Amino acid sequence: MPQASRKISPPPMSDNISVVDLIDRYFSAYNAARLRECCQLLQQRIFQDNVTVGVSIAGALTPAGLGLGCFNPLIRAGFIDWIVSTGANLYHDIHRSLRYDLYAGRPDVDDTKLRQEGSVRIYDITLDYEALLQTDAFLRKTLRSPEFQKPMGTGEFHYLLGKYIYKLEDELGVENRSLLATAYECGVPVYTSSPGDSSIGMNVAALALEGSQLVLDPSIDVNETTALVYLARDNDGKSAAIILGGGSPKNFLLQTQPQVHEVLGLEERGHDFFVQITDSRPDTGGLSGATPSEAVSWGKVDPNELPNAIVCYTDSTIALPLMSAYSLNRCQPRPLKRLYDRRQEGIDRLKSEYKNARK
Length: 359
Known about the structure:
Deoxyhypusine Synthase; 6-stranded parallel beta sheet; 3-stranded antiparallel beta sheet; 15 helices
């Protein structure tokens, strides 16, 4: 018998199979098996009370409805403790808060005709151009508020913005909260690694021309995210990285560990758990940080935990709903860690231990 002892012999599929049985019994090989391993690792090891879970989000996932459908339920269940996202995912999620809908379309439509009709396309998703204009107007009005008139990190920025969006959704009777409003409600800090690279950042830049004092400081974000991961080690705690897509959000989440040991000279240890959903390849340089084994060389992943590092090569819009459904069915909700409220505690701790390490 081969060393791998799991026999592939699923029973004939029934007409009332659950998502858990589908994944556990029928995802037997290739990337289906990797996705099954991701789901089982989430259930058995990652979504435990002593694990701090960071999630990076790249690709247009909220326009596809995955903010409402997946991220928000996972946040409310206590399964996501902090987030690094592209600004675009946060921006396009605000359209629904303003009661502008996004629609399923086709990727082969006539874009000239869409432009003439006042529509915008994100592959096979369409929305009204007016949604962009009204979202921009809401952002500029909100960001002129006094509490935004100072330098800050994107964690604080998104928390304050989430507060205003939460209030707006109450006023307009929006039942399904946006990602930022849900994160605000649950105390989940949300960071953007490239704050100028989205329509939110473009509106911040426009306000700077008016004399706004709002400046988004990336150094604050680097230190805060590092501090959150450093706090995760308390009381034999562990740190998990769940990566959806690649790009800047992926590296920003993973670089917290090299920041701890390479730059600050503190503990030598990587993330304990690593789950990545990607459709990129490492040999072309497009995987942005590449495989878990390569990440070990940078100190991003604990080499002793490589069995707990899984890469599934598939589309996040396929994997995330399946992972979410599996986890919500199989895992007990966790108490909210409300890491937003612990940011200063983490910074103070990091600063103190960094000073001690330099003596």
